[in-house]
Structure formats: C-alpha cells, structure tokens
C-alpha cells in the first residue's frame, strides 16, 4: 500500500510540472554594461562577407578609413575558424549624444584601390561591425506585411547602377552611414544599456567650398539636420583619382526592449509555421513506419544550444564546442570500435585504434588543408593562421589520439559479446532474392524517409550559413534531430528484418548504409542549393563543395553505431527465440 501511495504521489508531481510556468533564457556571452550620458562607445569592425564568393576578408583589406593604430581583438578558436577578424575602427560615438555629418576621412583612390572596391562591389560584399557585442544589422521592412522586419548582417560596400540617360554601368560606394543605436534606460538611474545597432547606408558625392583642410565644412551635409544629403543628389562613383569623403550620422533611440531580451528581435522566427509543418511531416513518417515511441539520443552540443550557451552573441561558441566535443569523444570512439572488433574475433586492437584515430580525421584535415591553401592564396580572412592550424593538430595528436587508445584499451579488456548460436564455418548459399530486396534498391529506398524528415529544416540551415542570416531555432532543430534518429532506426530495423526473412544473412554493411544513404540525398540537395541559390563568382568558392562531401561522410557515419547496434540486437533476439522454440 505504501508503494502504491508513493507511485501516486510521483504521478501527481509529474502532472503538476505541466502546469508550472516556464521561463526561457539564453546566455548572452557577455556581461551587461551600463553607459552614462556622454560615455565613449567604440565601434569595432569585423570581416567583409559575400554570398557570392563565401570568402571573408579583413575590413582593412579595402582602403577604408583607419584609426591611428589598428588593434586586433582577442578571438576564440571558433571565431578564427569562421574567418572573423575583429578590429578597432575610427567610428566613435558618445552615449545618447546624436552626431550629424561627422567626417571620418578623405580618400583619393589610386588604380589599385579603385579596382579593389569595384571587385568587392561586384561580388556584393557586406561590411560587418560590432557595438557592445551586438552585430550591425540592416532592417528590411516588407510593405505588404505590418511590423514584418527581417535583419541582415552588415551593409553593402556599394552598388552598381546607371546615371539617368546612360546605359554605362558604374560602381558607387556607400560612403555615408546613418547609425541608429537603441538603448534601454534604467528608470532608477541615468544609466542605459545598448539593445540595438542598426544602419542605413547611402552613397553621397560630398561637395565643399575652397581647398580641403581639417576644418572644411561640407555643403552637402548639415550637422544640424537629421539627414546628410541637403543639396547633392549624386551618388559617389568609384574611379581612379576620384575623391571620396566618408561620413556618418548617429542617432540614439530609447527602446522598451530590455538588455536580456535584446537578441529576441534578431532571432525572431518569422517562419515558425513552416518549421511546424516540417515536424508534423516528419512525425507522420515515423507514425507511418510503426508508431513505436523511441527515446532519441541527446547530443551534448544540442543540449548546450537548447540551454542558450551557444547563442549568436557568443561568437564562435558553436564551432568551438563542436570541435572540443569531437576531440573528447575519441574516448568513446575507441571503446566502441574495440568492442566491435573483439566481436569479430580480432586480436590486434592497437591497429584498429590507429585507424579509428586517423582514418576519418586525416581525410577531413587533408581537405581542410587544401581548401585553406586556396583561400590563403586569395588573401581572405577565412584562411586559418599557422598558429591556429598548429593548435588543431595539437588537439588531434595531443588529446584525441591518446583518448582513442585509452578507450580501445578498456574496450578490448571487456568480455566478448557472445553470439546466441554457433556460426557455421562454411557460408550457406543465399537464395535468389526478389528485385525489391536488391541491395542497391533497398539502400536507396532506405534513405528517402530520413531525408524527408529533415530537408525542410536543412533549407533554413543552409540559408543561415551561406546567406549570412541568423539561425537560433534549436528547439525545432532538436525535435527534427530526434525524429530523424527515430526514422533512421526504424527504417534500418525494418529492412534488416525483411532481409533476414529472405534468408540473406549479410546484413552488416546494409544496416550501415540503409539510413546512411540519406547522406546522398542531402549531398545532392545541398549541391543543388549551392549552384542554384548562390551566385558563385570565384572558382575557389566552388571548393566549398568539398565540405558538402565531408558533411555527407559525417552523415553516413553518424547513424552507423546505433543502427548497427539495433540490427545486432534484432539478430540476437531472433536467434534466441528460435533456440527457445
């Protein structure tokens, strides 16, 4: 009776959890900073990015205005691998003190500078800046949708266009920036916190009277007006020996958004109905298969992402976390490979550990090294420096490889997994199989359902990676991840069962490739997206298709261990039942 009361109490406690109010949060990656009126705000510049080339460059790769001394900010491993180059800039604001028509510098373009600007304008490069750990964004409003705003990283270096009555295409640079700094004021004090950083770029051919000097006043720019252009309607053309004057305005706008919620506007999910459609579509696939409830594996990276540790404000955190987790998971890779090797009556566990530690990482590192050399030749900030490359090799040889050997040692010390029945030394002849049990056909069919479960979410992931948009919908991603785990497991077990019913005992490699073939569809889909949605102009950028190949290898390896384990469990249980009968 006491046990019954205890169980009832537990049930009521669990039910009560559904009615508790939950508070969601994310860890912003930086402590809040309070600013008083007049405090100095230092704007930092980051890499130049393009959806056409996918090759980032340092901000000062182009002859923009520079501060007296360029200072590099400390970056973590993930930021370096992303190609971030965070540096100081000549843009300096004073908190809650608007500034209009501030002159940054005056440049006379030589042939090399004009060519560099034109190339980056042709490739649609965007300038990225940072203020108080917030990225500079350009708000894009849709006229047909009320309050529908999408934020894009950075502003375009310039644009191409034609003068009225002319068919010749010219290059124009965005040399005037109108910044908007949003802040949330503390009602109990005069301090404020920055909650938004926006910009509107303009191309303005500035004019002035007399000779140029430090005190020159622009006739096209009124320091007391809210808009820079007062008389000139001509954009600033990019040509050799052309004069360019860089200017900016900064406005401060009070906001009701609190500092803890300042990323919410950037991470607004405008397409949540599509994500729910993807999940419902995937659930139907799972229910169609068998309807069996399956507890999905939770990857540590996904847990940290759900908890908010890997928010976009923590730049490079996701890549760093994934890299370090891969290194430390070498212990489990070595353990599982040794256990499986011992099942096949193997004795040379050190040889297996060596292959586990080097085969896949060496393939990835070779591709990474070749691409990095090509990117280095383009003088892109996306090229990994020698110091970071050495750190990666040190992580591989100094941590991952020893952990693989430690895992293999303990895995091989474990007792051998015993087969339920004795295996004949002479393989028995396999009967002729039906056409639909052909290995190639069944493997290709097995990959369709897992691909159907994930392809919608894959579109948003590719868009965020290659079109420089925010992606912070790990809740949807986690649900899709669990569904694809269930789908891969079910389709593998079902096809393995059909194969055994057809008296075909060669199920090992087929269980490996059945759900792994979804990687082929994902590779083709990603390649289709790469060549149709992106206007790639640099041949080197086409090398990123190699990363799609690496991603496909990862997707084949990822479902390997648990799918094969489930098939092994199915075979063991089936033979045990046969023995009992």
Instruction: Report the β-strand fraction as a percent range.
Output: 15-25%
Overall strand count: 13
Tally of helical segments: 16
Give the domain tally: 2
Shape: elongated
Structural class label: alpha+beta
Describe the structure.
The chain is 44% helix and 16% strand. With 581 residues, the protein is of the alpha+beta class. It folds into two domains: 40-261, no CATH class; 272-420 and 432-580, no CATH class. The strands form four sheets. Strands 1, 2, 4, 5 and 8 form a five-stranded antiparallel sheet that branches. The chain has a four-stranded mixed sheet with strand order 3-13-11-12, with no helix packed on it. A hairpin with a 6-residue loop joins strand 11 and strand 12 (192-202). The longest helix has 29 residues, at 349-377.
List the helices and strands and how they pair.
Elements: H1 2-17, E1 40-49, H2 77-82, E2 87-94, E3 99-108, H3 111-122, E4 126-131, E5 134-135, E6 137-141, E7 149-153, E8 155-156, E9 158-162, E10 169-173, E11 176-185, E12 192-202, E13 243-254, H4 272-289, H5 300-307, H6 317-328, H7 330-343, H8 349-377, H9 386-413, H10 439-446, H11 448-466, H12 474-501, H13 508-514, H14 518-533, H15 545-557, H16 560-580
